[in-house]
Specification:
single chain, 16 strands, Double Stranded RNA Binding Domain, eight-stranded parallel beta barrel, TIM Barrel, elongated, 528 residues, 17 helices, 3 domains, three-stranded antiparallel sheet, alpha/beta
């Protein structure tokens, strides 16, 4: 496969604010990247970072990579030192990776001001360090830091750095848009000028783009279209400042839009799973609106879209979602028409196509509720209960007689919430009281106590998330509160429900009742 998919999530991506991978994290991310089919995984900077040194030591024993080669990252030798005298050069060899990536200054201003050496010495540093690793049987990539800025300032010198790397035996020389300020047309022009100056083919070059102009993906694709066959990315675009070129967007664009064979067969379908798994390891919520792999990448809200999708999903999807492991979703909102409701219901396993009367009632009900502040866009469970309710398919597990919530601020500063619920369950009147760390938690606990005798499966249900939003009133009415409750059954299944009312506790009650009703409706039967 001629294209070199080079991932630097574990080095450049780890420079994103808020990310701090442990060695175990790095090993897990490397396995995921290998499953996605990348060709090279840059594991870090041994010698400069103790954690990275440990990573390479453990990787040799613990990683069994099928598609990727590990790459150790480091700098060329320091000015005034021989390659055998520089401890960081030694550390790169000690990492025992089949490939190394060296970073070198290619902007004469950085050479003179940051390295405080001469242009000639920097060229010698590049040439000699590359040759040293080639002599030691390593594949060598050279990252030309600040390539594009340097090329615009003094193209002759930046070209000389590239030439020195090739003279040393570099396999690829990578043009880095370190400050992220380039645009696609300028990337293309620089590649054309450089290849003309050196009389080389562009496939000997690589590209590495930062995202400061929000053009990192576009710049990377432009470079490949100009003939470059080595491109460096990070998972989910993680990286310093606004980040790097997003691996999943770049690969999907190249493979699906340009028809280039950049990944092994069957790997692109892992995109969404790998993207979200790496986000979990990084402890960063997946970007809902990320291209290709975001949960909303193929989500449709407008009724006009839904009408067309009924005829052919590709009328409003630029690719088939499954090719990147994603799914199409229909969002149910005040913008929904009959087509949206029908498609969303079908998605949930309910066919409304043959029930036009019920379809009309559900559509109108959704519009009326959404106008009053309800939102089913993120509450599929409440929407499903609403639809099934039209067919009498949702037996309520209990009937409420009353509930009461007390909040007590005690002399010692402790704040305790207590809730009492009175319900009828299968002909039995039940009164239950419970305390919680807040009124909603207390109400949830009391309701579970009341129902647990008849529904023991409730003991595994967990209130996983609780969101409150205050909505401005309309038509002279006061503000209302919308509550979203996410519930988990302890076995990997979760669902979200919604409640709306002027009173936050009553809004929470609606969402809690829906949550328990939905969970019981589809839970494995454990009661006699």
């Amino acid at each position: 496969m001629p294209y070199q998919v080079y991932d630097t999530t574990l080095r450049d991506g780890a420079q994103r604010e808020g990310i701090s991978y442990s060695v175990v994290d790095k090993l897990a991310v490397a396995r995921l990247l290998d499953e996605f089919g990348v060709g090279f995984i840059e594991g870090g900077w041994p010698g400069a970072m103790p954690k990275d040194t440990e990573f390479f030591q453990r990787a040799r024993k613990e990683l069994d990579l099928r598609h990727a080669q590990l790459v150790a990252f480091g700098a060329t030798r320091k000015a005034g030192l021989g390659v055998n005298e520089d401890p960081q050069v030694r550390a790169l060899l000690d990492a025992e990776t089949p490939a190394v990536c060296l970073v070198a200054k290619s902007d004469i201003r950085h050479v003179e001001r940051a390295l405080r050496t001469t242009g000639d010495e920097n060229l010698a540093m590049v040439r000699e360090t590359v040759a040293h690793f080639v002599k030691n049987d390593r594949r060598v990539f050279l990252d030309c830091e600040h390539f594009f800025d340097g090329f615009r300032h003094d193209s002759a010198y930046t070209t000389a750095v590239v030439q020195a790397a090739f003279e040393g035996g570099a396999e690829r020389v990578v043009m880095c848009d370190t400050n992220g300020g380039m645009l696609p047309s300028r990337i293309t022009a620089a590649i054309q000028e450089l290849t003309s100056r050196l009389s080389i083919s562009a496939d000997l070059l690589g590209i590495h783009c930062q995202n400061d102009t929000s053009c990192a993906v576009a710049n990377t694709v432009a470079a490949v279209e100009a003939g470059v066959e080595h491109f460096q990315c990070t998972a989910n675009g993680y990286g310093e400042r606004p980040g790097n070129a997003d691996l999943f967007a770049v690969v999907a664009n190249l493979q699906l839009k340009l028809g280039l064979p950049v990944l092994p067969d069957g790997c692109l379908e892992q995109a969404m799973r790998v993207s979200h798994s790496i986000a979990e390891i990084a402890n960063i919520a997946p970007d809902t609106h990320q291209a290709y792999v975001g949960a909303a990448a193929f989500a449709h809200k407008a009724g006009l879209h839904a009408s067309a999708i009924k005829v052919d999903p590709l009328l409003y999807n630029h690719v088939e979602p499954s090719v990147v492991g994603n799914d199409m979703r229909i969002l149910v909102t005040e913008m929904a028409g009959r087509a949206s409701i029908e498609l969303k219901s079908r998605e949930l396993g309910i066919d409304l196509a043959g029930h036009p009367t019920e379809l009309s009632r559900v559509t109108q009900r959704v519009k009326d509720l959404e106008a009053g502040g309800w939102s089913f866009e993120a509450a599929d469970a409440s929407f499903e209960l609403l639809v099934r309710g039209e067919f009498g398919e949702v037996p309520r597990p209990f009937a409420l007689e009353s509930y009461r919530v007390l909040v007590e601020h005690r002399e010692d500063g402790a704040v305790v919430s207590e809730a009492t619920v009175k319900v009828r369950v299968r002909g039995e009147r039940v009164i239950a009281t419970a305390e919680g760390n807040g009124p909603v938690n207390a109400l949830d606990e009391a309701l579970r106590v009341a129902l647990s005798k008849h529904y023991p499966e409730l003991t595994s249900f967990v209130l996983a998330d609780y969101k409150v939003r205050i909505l401005e009133g309309s038509h002279g009415s006061g503000a209302v509160t919308r509550v979203l409750v996410e519930t988990n059954d302890g076995h990997g299944r979760d669902w979200t429900t919604v409640g709306v009312h002027e009173n936050v506790v009553e809004a929470s009650w609606h969402a809690l009742v829906d949550a328990l009703t939905f969970g019981l409706k589809s839970a494995p039967a454990t009661r006699s």
